Amino acid sequence: MDIFERITKNRGPIGQYQKAGHGYFAFPKLEGEISAHMKFRGKKVLTWSLNNYLGLGNHPEVRKVDAAAAAEYGMAYPMGARMMSGQTRKHEELEEALASFVQKEDAFLLNYGYQGMSSIIDALTTRNDVIVYDSESHACILDGMRMSLAKRFVFPHNNMENLEKQLERAVKRADQQGGGILVITEGVFGMAGDLGNLKAVCDLKDKYDFRLLVDDAHGFGTMGATGMGSGEHFGVQDKIDLYFSTFAKSMAGIGAFIASDKDVVDFLRYNMRSQTYAKSLPMPMVIGALKRLEMLKSMPELRENLWDVVNALQSGLKNAGFDIGATESPVTPVYMSGGIIEATNLILDLRENYNIFCSMVIYPVVPKGDILLRLIPTAMHNLNDVEETIKAFLKCRTKLQAGEYKTETFQDISALRV
Fold first, then answer.
1. Percent of the chain as helix, strand, coil, to the nearest 5
2. Are 240 and 260 in contact (CB under 8 A)?
3. Which end of the chain is more exposed for a tag (fewer CB within 10 A), N or C?
4. What is the β-pairing status of strands 211-215 and 181-186?
5. 369-378: per-residue pLDDT in tens?
6. pLDDT tens for each residue of 226-251
7. Inter-residue contact 282 to 82 (CB < 8 Å)
8. What is the pLDDT of residue 417?
């Protein structure tokens, strides 16, 4: 079969809904200043869909530094990959600052989080090694393992008893092949908001010989006494062998980093293909990241404001009888029951009649018959926003349970598109 003919017939698990949802449920356009209130289709909405945890995305101090750096350097400098011609003192300065903050010997600045994590796994492991990973690991981890030649074993989400069984299997396999073991988990799982059981995982290092890679994209800046992340929250930062995070969440920027022992980071500098063959991160983004990191460290009130909103939202939802799962982080899932048509009608009602914009998650990300509404509180939100949202959710839940969102087909949203 011709490739184009095949993809025309099979659009994929999410792409099959393109005609019904493009521009509204998928690829929606949020416009205006980055804040808790933005514009969607020309009207103001209260948005809970931005991973701008600390509110740095549109902070005046951040914008000032970003603008000054862009004016001085433009968006092209430095040209080329870092290994060839794209290295600067500012890139090194940011790496040093990141390493110091997360208490590791060194750090390597990455262009993007997704490609960075995938490339880290590929660079670290060989066909003789074994990877053991949490079943709820992010797509970038799964893609990194697909690139790797290492054997892999999966353990059910946060199931420490099963993790130990997989480690026993991994030890046998690694010993037979003369390889090592890499365990991969996350600090904060970005869909459900629950935490990786890092303390229990690290305790297993006393019994099994493995290295631990933690993806803390949603934990960096939000978790721990200083915002260092999930390792600080659990008191095990020193036992995390490779600590990874992205700038796309708390840092409200572009880029990522991996921190570890100096020898390990030096190896990655020379062996990560995603960095060796990619243009260096532009100077304004590097200088902007330095400013964001400085504010993350020196302005604890940003994190305090975030958690005030988080606690109000999550306690309010629970008191109203909503199921928010086992979240222990700012990520706030709201679980309901219904099919995809009910989910889209629910979201449409929230956006059109209550001016609430949040993300909808459906099968195959969650089981069939489940609806997940994912809320991301930020330091930009306030308690009035929380109260307004809970009231709207209560009204929509009543409609959902009464069957008002059940229709034979998807509602025609062509008239709603702008």
1. 45, 15, 40
2. no
3. N
4. parallel
5. 899 999 999 9
6. 999 999 999 999 999 999 999 999 99
7. no
8. 54
Q: Are the C-beta atoms of 152 and 177 separated by less than 8 Å?
A: no
User: What pLDDT shows up at residue 130?
Assistant: 98
What amino acid occupies position 138? H
Strand spans (E) along 216-287:
242-246, 256-260
* pLDDT number for residue 414: 67
Average pLDDT, the chain: 95
CB 289 within 8 Å of CB 250: no
- Site of tokens 């490609």: 115
User: Mind listing the domains of the chain with CATH numbers?
Assistant: 3-53+300-416 (3.90.1150.10), 62-298 (3.40.640.10)
Two structure tokens written together for 43: 């009207």
Question: CB burial class (10 A; 0-12, 13-18, 19+) of residue 325?
Answer: middle
All residue ranges of the chain with pLDDT < 50 are none
In angstroms, what CA-CA distances link 14 with 19, 27, 364? 11, 12, 8
By DSSP bridging, strand 359-361 and strand 370-375 are antiparallel
